[in-house]
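S., here's the first fold you wanted:
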Amino acid sequence: MDSGTSSGDITVVHVMRHGEVANPDGILYGRLPGYHLSELGRRMADRVADHLASRDVTYVVASPLERAQETATPIAKAHGLDLATDARLIEADNVFQGKTFGVGDGALKRPENWKHLVNPFKPSWGEPYVEQVVRMMGALDAAKDAARGHEAVLVSHQLPIWIVRSYVERRRLWHDPRKRQCTLASLTTFTYQGDKIVSVGYTEPARDLVPAHLLAGAKPVKGKDKAFGA
């Protein structure tokens, strides 16, 4: 058997959520172009690059959206790697893209929004959870193959990361968005033995830089918890 495909190979795939985005108007930016990291977001990206600098990273890939590309760039640079792009890592599609939609803004009371909220199990307001699983698992497997026996870093967005983790950990896909464990600049780490995921881990290397109300599990704060996109 080729040692490069041995069932004993250990490959580590880190899936990172991008850093904070400059978004003063509180727009749910979704897949819209033109949303870049804030100064704080760039500091988060640098922090994670430092955190991973000593790791055996041989492949770095990001969603095509600017905030993901900018987050991944210092990580790739630290390892002397070209940054790859995988469209499968993109943010989930959402019909509320371009609008404000969050805690305390009255969005749930607007009749024009009700038709999009009828089925939280799918969900009816955006890309089906199952479709997110399929594309994210494809991106993870491709990264595992590209970095086999080493480590890869993928930069993506909160919802797709949480959904693929939920799938791997055999949880239901529909969930309370406030309870996602996927803070800005966090790492959700999948360890493969051969082609099988054998463990999932979670770390927050830039936790001290994340505003308290945006930490995983934080209680929503009216006026500070709009669904800006992730």
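And the second, which I think is the more interesting of the pair:
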Amino acid sequence: MLVAAAVCPAPPLLVPEVAAGAAAELGDARTACSDALAVLAAARPDLLVVVGPAAEGGGYDQGTPGGFAGFGVDLTVTLGPDLGEPPSGEATGTALPPSLAVAGWLLGQARWAAAPVAGVAVAEDLAPRGCGLLGADLGRSAERVAMLVMGDGSACRTLKAPGYLDERAAAFDAAAGRALGAADTGALAALDPALAAELLAAGRAPWQVLAGAAEGAGLDGRLLYEDAPYGVGYFVAAWS
């Protein structure tokens, strides 16, 4: 069952080499992510499942490589330590999508060694019911499961945001932040996928996977970070 979860934002700008001169602007977010990962390690999981949004769903073995060449940086990461073992045969992906590459960077910074790692990319348009069913399956994938859930809120908080200003964005992010901070699985499951798509909120599907995994687990939540730099809603939360 699910024993702990960390929710982190997924922008490549979280990686200092990508952010370059703007790296300091997300320093607090990186610190909060580190604190959330420490909660996962303290839960003594048997398996860490890393979930992030992507254009298509898929599975990724521990040690799968990813990188940031698409963002102009020659930096390679892996999803957890590369143990040099043969693939499980269950994974479908050979290179991490950006959200899981950011997760790989976070795990590398934390020197993650508390449990084996598996990656799951969630299609951004996966319906809430599908997210919930996937989450329930992932929550049963080991006796003690921890999840690292990558995803952003709306990208329409300001005029200079990637999706321009949408007056509905602040309320959407406020609701998401409350749900993540309270470990409110019902509120997460109720997020409107159509509205999330219009607001470019890529975290909606991964958060609803988390809701499915955490249903009935009795976890408490803490919101460690909430802000909207660059007009995008970023959240860090820890559930345990």
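Why I say that: The first helix runs from residue 16 to 19. The two ends are 12 Å apart (CA to CA).

Talk tomorrow,
H.
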